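User: Batch of two.

Assistant: Item 1 of 2:
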Amino acid sequence: MSNKSLPDVPPTHTIKPIDPPPADVEKPTMAMLKADINSGATGDKTEVFDPGMAMLGTCEEAAGTPLRPEQIRFARYQERFQRWRSGSRKTSAAHNKHDGIPTLFIGFIAAVAVIFVVGLSVVSG
C-alpha cells in the first residue's frame, strides 16, 4: 500500500541513502555525528535515515552542559576509526542483507524435540 492511497500520511524519506558529512571540519555538531551513523560511515547500520525521537546531545543540552566541538570531533573520530580499524567489511547482518541463522535457538528446539520423543518412547514402551 503506498502513501498516495493514504492522503493523511506524509511521504517518508527513510529509505533514501544518506551522504556522510565532511570528516574534518573546524566545529563539528552532534547532527554530523548522527549523519555519520546514518550514512553507514561508522559501520553500525545500513545507510538510511533513522528518525530518532530526540537528537544526539539533547540530554547534555537539557542538563546545561552541551558537548564542546572538541568532544564531538573526538567522538566522530572514534566512531569512524573503530569502523575502519576492523577492516572495510561491514560487520552487522543487516549490511549483508540477511538476518543470519539463529543456530542456538534452533539447536535448543531440536534438543527439546529429541528429549520429548525419547521420553514418549520410554513411557510408552
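Item 2 of 2:
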Amino acid sequence: MTVEATAKTAATARKPRADAQRNRERLIEAAKAAFRDIGPDASLDEIARRAGLGIGTLYRHFPTRDAIVEAVYRREVGRLADSATRLLASAPPAEALRQWMRLFVDYVATKRVMAQALGAIVGGAGELYAASGAQITGAMTLLVERAAAAGDIRADVDPDDLLRALVGFTFGNSSPAWQASALRLIDLLMDGLLPLADGGGVTKRRRG
C-alpha cells in the first residue's frame, strides 16, 4: 500500500470517531438546554430532537438517563475548572479571579436546575460531587495563589474560605434574582480582598 493510500485509510478511520465526538457534544449541549428550559424531567426523546439526532444515536452514547445527566454535569465542572488557566493567560490575576467567580455563578445555575436529576442517579451522586469538588477547589486555589503572588489581593486570603463565601451566596440564595445578587456580591467580595496599605496611620484598602 502506498503512503498516500495509507494516509487516506487513516483519515477514513478517524472520520467516524470525529463525527461521533461531535454528536456526543451536540447531545450534551442539547441535554443542558432541555434541563434548563423544561426541567430535570426533560425526556431523552426531546434531547435527541434538540440535538437533531435519532434516539438510537443518543442511546449509543448514553445508554441510560443517568449517563447523560452525569455527562452534562462533568462537562460543566470540567469547563469551569479548565477556565482558570485560560483566564490567567489572558487577564491580570485579580481580574481572572473575578471572571472565574462569575463563571461559577453560571455553573451553579446549571447545577441548581439539574439538582433533582443528579439526586436521582442510581447509587447517588456522592462520588460525582467529590470529584467535582476537588476540581473546583484546585481551580480556586490556583487563582488565589497567583493573585496573592502578584500583590493583587491580600496574602492571607484562604482559597477554601473564599470558595465557602461563593457557595454561600449562590447555593444559599433562594430568591428569583439570586444570580444578579451573586454577581453584585462578587464585586463587593473582590473589594474586600484588596491588599491592606498603611496610609498615614490609617489602614486603607490599596486599589491597583
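The first helix runs from residue 3 to 37.
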